Fold this sequence. Notes:
Blueprint: H1 2-9, H2 15-33, H3 35-73, H4 76-92, H5 98-107, H6 112-117, H7 120-123, H8 128-132, H9 134-139, H10 144-153, H11 157-185, H12 212-233, H13 235-249, H14 267-274, H15 276-283, H16 292-297, H17 301-305, H18 308-314, H19 319-332, H20 335-346, H21 352-379
Helix pairs in contact: 2-3, 3-10, 3-12, 3-13, 4-5, 10-11, 10-19, 11-19, 11-21, 19-21, 20-21
Amino acid sequence: MKSVSKRAFGWIPKGIPCLIIVIGLFGYIGSVMGVPNMLNTIMKTAHDLLLNTVFYLMGICVITGAIGKLFVEFGVVSLLEQILRPLMRPLFNLPGVASLGAVMTFLSDNPAIISLSQDKRFSSYFKKYQFISLTNFGTAFGMGLLVIVFMVGQGFGFPALIGLVGAFCGCIVSTRLMQYFVLKSYPQYAIENATEIDPTTVAEEKKEETTLFLRILNSLLDGGKTGVDVGIAIIPGVLVISSLVMILTFGPSAEGYTGGAYQGIELLPWLANKIGVVFQYLFGFNDPHLVAFPITALGAVGAALSLIPGFLKEGWVDGNAVAVFTAIGMCWSGYLSTHTAMLDSLGYRELTSKAIIAHTIGGLAAAIIAHWLFVLISLL
């Protein structure tokens, strides 16, 4: 079959399909908006996102990064890890030390679980199938503090907490499902250790003694620098993905297409309207424009958060939507752009498709649980 397809399509240069897609997409947008208006809208939207959204998110990243580092330095993370440890085995089928990964990714981003897993003392507690599922487990908590702080800053504290519960449930679904997929393909991983080392024989690293003031200062500054790195890392996702999604989501201004920021062709709402009953029943979305958030969260949750101010301005967002956004935003947190690299760094690249399928289901479960939990609490 492969040889037949190569003979049939081998004459097509590799760049041609890309050109067809790009020209087709922007040709369609330009035919609706007008090419000058389309170009002006893209530039002005990206510029406004950079000034009014990216820097705001970067400020949150710096503050949360500083707080997270301070928590690590003074034992708050260890305390949280001890509190959460009893939940790991019954809920996630993971050893208790996995709770440290949940706390670290919640305070920072998905890749934190990878840097932690490189520590042999940490990975020695896991069987191989559990170790591989850390990709799904850590991703479900990635950038959680940033998402919740952002939602609280918009005036939706209680719905954000409901979303946190939904993300927690979605993480259970994703992690357990990934473990099932791994064991189905590699049954021997159930008994093979991820790392052959006895954790009790490894001496703890000694910390250099410093004064209390220096410890606080270094923690705040080092954590703030990490926040700056995260803030810079989300710029491409916000400017590229969000600009495109907004053009496909929003419509013209009251005066029509003028080339201003945040104008578009409303393609995504039109498509969502075709199956609007599904989104309304599963997620409780009252407006088809809201489907842009989960679509954007597939690639970057920071980019998805940049959609919220525009949604609020248009009056599309309510408490239920924020609960769903928090759940699916936390649980997915850009997994399509990170899962491949994360599994590759763990040495199990061939399981990427299984991880993506499991996490897709987990994110949808998180959103559905958050919606119906919000409905239930609203009835009380």
